[in-house]
Amino acid sequence: MTAAKVAMAAAFSLMMAMTLFQVVNRYAIGLPVFWTEELIVFLLIWATMLGLPVQLWEHKEIVVDFIEFPSAGADRIKTLLGAFASLAFCAVLAWSGWAFAARGWNVTSPALGLSRFWFFVPISFCAALSVLALLVRRKDKSIGGFD
Known about the structure:
The protein is mostly helical and 147 residues long. It has one domain. Helices cover 69% and strands 4% of the residues. It is built from four helices and two strands; from the N terminus they run ααβααβ. α1 (2-29) runs antiparallel to α2, α2 (36-57) packs parallel to α4 and α3 packs antiparallel against α4 (117-136).
């Protein structure tokens, strides 16, 4: 997951640099650069979607625990059901995200000329990474909950 964190940081840093570049060019120089907005959206999608498997790997996902069970066994079953639901959701998201991205293969973005596939593929790619993260991560309790 270190690679995902580095990619997220790089995408975010480039996104901030492009935003500053666009603001300076538009308001200080008076020459707006048309392709920066599309690049910023592209980087935002990738940075955001890469955060999903990272948060799952580190057990920092949001946990809303409003059902208390007195026994540890029942609590363990509840945790396993939650993990299975997360796994199923991410698997469906990976499959449907791929179908969605494939439909955008022949459509190009107006400013960058990239296939829309590259804007949509982070959905399926990061959902698939999330499935892997859920399957191989430590079996600790998640720490991102509201108590």
